[in-house]
Specification:
Layout: H1 10-13, E1 16-17, H2 32-40, H3 69-72, H4 79-83, H5 98-111, E2 121-123, E3 146-149, H6 157-166, H7 181-194, H8 198-209, H9 216-228, H10 242-248, E4 250-252, E5 255-257, H11 262-270, E6 274-282, E7 290-298, E8 301-310, H12 314-327, E9 332-337, E10 340-354, E11 358-369
Parallel strand pairs: 1-11
Antiparallel strand pairs: 2-3, 4-5, 6-7, 7-8, 9-10, 10-11
């Protein structure tokens, strides 16, 4: 893996990579969520906290649902009923600190014994381009990204359960998702298998200690809702979910959105459906998991900047994205992995909600590193 080199035009491509160990400034990737979908999917009840619990303060709102609205006396009338007992997210009185997030992310990093070893993956990164070239849609790499992957990894229970989920979705938004009994069972199998791992045990123990969940079953139920619960990105009801978007990938308005997983990339590249074009960043880690920000074509549709962990186990990615969504929903989440800082950005889907006003995951992705 190569040392991190600063990219002067990172704003244009949506990723910030800094040259020193100062806290890096995050820049959202050109995801459809940040550009149009979230803006068009804002709650439709400005005098209610439905779908708005603990959102950021916005002076344009008639009433508020942020963590300090009671202090200022400007909460919406239903704040107490909808938000006061809300589970799973940070409250101002017991918020998870940046230092605590960095500490637990290091524990998760060390606990990932299912990750790939150096000899398990051979990458052919080929040409690195500048951020100003990411929109050009030029194939700078004649060969595949993955020269070799030890597919014995995929026989491990969490990998096998994860892979079984990837083909349960229609990638085009606007087409409703309908799951068979077997496909629903595959979701439960995946959650059951990852909860057996040290990675997810570390995460649950941390969140339980932080009073986010009273039991492991409550935690698992919430993970299933936030990741696999369906909502609408297009015209069709229930055409998307956080898991589909982040791990499997989607196509909306002629562009690839989401698709932040190396296993999915490898399997699609192996089938001739993904054409690797270039990369703009290669992480500083000298072992797996590493991070790569790349450009590629997915069966006729282009991904301008796709950041992904490389060589991580499914539970590792699932744990970090979940941690950030629970501790820093809709915000940048500063992690530490093997001594190197990394930032993840999550977004929530505001309507509909589940439970007592909880929000689904819209997207989660790596935004910066140093």
């Amino acid at each position: 893996m190569r040392a991190c080199i600063p990219l002067a035009l990172a704003v244009l491509c949506g990723l910030a990579w800094a040259e020193d160990h100062k806290e890096s400034e995050p820049f959202p990737q050109p995801e459809e969520e940040t550009e149009e979908a979230l803006a068009s999917n804002l709650y439709s009840a400005p005098t209610s906290c439905q779908g708005r619990c603990y959102e950021a303060f916005d002076k344009h709102h008639k009433c508020h649902c942020n963590a300090r609205c009671q202090e200022f006396g400007n909460c919406c009338k239903d704040f107490e009923s909808l938000c006061s007992d809300r589970e799973g997210f940070s409250y101002s009185s017991d918020a998870i600190t940046k230092e605590e997030i960095q500490s637990i992310s290091e524990k998760i990093y060390r606990a990932d014994t299912n990750k790939a070893q150096k000899e398990d993956i051979v990458l052919n990164r080929q040409n690195r381009i500048s951020p100003s070239e990411t929109r050009d849609q030029v194939d700078h790499c004649p060969k595949p990204l993955f020269t070799y992957v030890n597919e014995k990894l995929f026989s491990k229970p969490t990998y096998a359960a994860f892979i079984n989920l990837l083909n349960n979705y229609q990638r085009a938004t606007g087409h409703g998702e309908y799951f068979s009994a077997q496909q629903l069972a595959e979701q439960d199998t995946f959650l059951r298998e990852i909860m057996k791992t040290a990675v997810m045990k570390e995460l649950y123990s941390f969140l339980h200690h932080q009073n986010r969940y009273g039991s492991e079953q409550e935690f698992v139920d919430d993970l299933k809702n936030m990741w696999f619960g369906l909502y609408s990105r297009g015209k069709e009801e229930g055409d998307s979910s956080g898991f589909e978007h982040v791990f499997s990938g989607e196509v909306k308005k002629g562009k690839v959105t989401g698709f932040h997983n190396w296993i999915r990339f490898y399997l699609q590249e192996k089938e001739g459906l993904v054409d690797y074009y270039s990369h703009i960043f290669d992480g500083p880690w000298d072992s797996y998991p590493d991070v790569l920000a790349m450009q590629f074509n997915w069966d006729g549709y282009y991904k301008e900047v796709g950041s992904a962990f490389i060589g991580s186990s499914p539970e590792f990615e699932f744990a970090l994205y979940s941690l950030c969504f629970i501790a820093r929903p809709g915000k940048v989440c500063q992690l530490s992995l093997g001594g190197y800082p990394l930032a993840i950005r999550t977004y929530s889907w505001d309507s509909p909600t589940y439970g007592n006003g909880k929000k689904y995951i819209a997207t989660a992705y790596i935004v910066s590193s140093t």
